[in-house]
């Protein structure tokens, strides 16, 4: 706000300014200046001309806006005590600096914004508070499961055997499709060893067809299952001497093996 040198008969208080933006980025808007003045004599009849200098960036030159003098009617009033200023007590001055003791009425509301709901009442924020608890429960469950497997070697072996059989059955189908008889029966025999060894709590390498007579029949295992296991062991033995088998014959053995392994896995021995 430029100083108005022609306003000599007026007491001028420090001007104020504010910026009211009209776009979210704050690149456009309006700057408003306000200045309060008080006439010092009752015979003043007009407010002198007002001049405002600024730089025009489009014309690349300085401009001066002028407003003509405005008529005034000043009536004398009683003695009014000047407002005191709460300033620095240590600074000694004859005349305290003028303060803005009169505030103009705000004529423009300015930029407004819609207040959003606080985080505490937003559904996604409330749901987010449950994430740490769920993560903690998941970690506790994983730790309990790990401790259970560490204390129970047989349960750990049971899970490992289940994974081995699942992977082995997929490999069996690949060998059958490729008509690889030797690889097929070697893997079939190993899967029987793994499943029977886990149920009988014996090393897989110790399992042969002899366990049928030594362990399964004395335990009164279903004869149909015993016969299926015996047939699979015999097929493995015959493959050592007559390895030539068609892909269709190999594929037909896979459902028999799956059924036998599933029943052995459910035995209580």
Offer a quick outline of the entry.
The chain is α+β, with helices and mostly antiparallel strands and 269 residues long.
Report on this structure.
- The protein is rod-shaped.
- The strands form four sheets. It has a two-stranded antiparallel ribbon.
- The protein has 269 residues and is an alpha+beta fold.
- Helix 3 (153-177) runs antiparallel to helix 7, helix 4 (181-200) packs parallel to helix 7 (247-265) and helix 6 (223-241) packs antiparallel against helix 7 (247-265).
- 10% of the residues are buried.
- It is built from seven helices and eight strands.
- The termini are far apart.
- It folds into two domains: 1-107, no CATH class; 152-265.
Query: Mean of residue pLDDT?
Result: 82
Number of strands: 8
Which structural category do the helix and sheet elements fall into?
alpha+beta
Element order, helices and strands?
EEEEEEEEHHHHHHH
User: What's the structural domain tally?
Assistant: 2
Question: Helical region count?
Answer: 7
Shape type: rod-shaped
Biggest beta-sheet profile:
2 strands, antiparallel
Q: Helical residue percent?
A: 40-55%
Low-confidence stretches: none
Strand order of the largest sheet: 1-4
Defining key terms:
269 residues; alpha+beta; 2 domains; two-stranded antiparallel sheet
Strand and helix map with partners:
Elements: E1 10-12, E2 16-21, E3 29-34, E4 37-39, E5 46-47, E6 50-56, E7 61-67, E8 70-71, H1 123-128, H2 130-151, H3 153-177, H4 181-200, H5 211-216, H6 223-241, H7 247-265
């Amino acid at each position: 706000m430029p100083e108005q040198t022609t306003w000599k008969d007026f007491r001028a208080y420090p001007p104020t300014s504010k910026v009211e933006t009209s776009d979210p980025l704050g690149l456009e808007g309006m700057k408003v200046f306000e200045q309060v003045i008080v006439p010092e004599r009752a015979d003043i009849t007009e407010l002198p001309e007002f001049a405002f200098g600024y730089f025009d960036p489009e014309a690349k030159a300085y401009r001066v806006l002028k407003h003509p003098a405005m008529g005034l009617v000043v009536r004398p009033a009683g003695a009014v005590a000047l407002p005191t200023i709460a300033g620095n007590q240590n600074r000694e001055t004859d005349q305290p600096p003028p303060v803005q003791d009169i505030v103009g009425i705000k004529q423009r509301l300015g930029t407004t914004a819609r207040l959003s709901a606080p985080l505490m009442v937003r559904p996604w924020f409330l749901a987010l508070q449950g994430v740490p608890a769920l993560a903690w429960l998941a970690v506790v469950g994983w730790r309990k499961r790990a401790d259970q497997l560490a204390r129970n070697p047989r349960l750990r072996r049971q899970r490992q055997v289940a994974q081995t059989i699942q992977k082995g059955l997929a490999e069996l189908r690949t060998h059958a499709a490729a008509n690889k008889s030797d690889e097929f029966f070697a893997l079939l025999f190993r899967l029987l060893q793994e499943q029977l060894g886990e149920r009988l709590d014996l090393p897989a390498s110790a399992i042969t067809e002899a366990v049928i007579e030594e362990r399964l029949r004395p335990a009164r295992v279903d004869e149909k299952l015993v016969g299926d296991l015996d047939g699979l062991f015999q097929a493995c033995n015959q493959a050592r001497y007559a390895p030539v088998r068609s892909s269709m014959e190999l594929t037909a053995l896979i459902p028999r093996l799956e059924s036998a392994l599933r029943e052995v896995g459910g035995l209580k021995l």
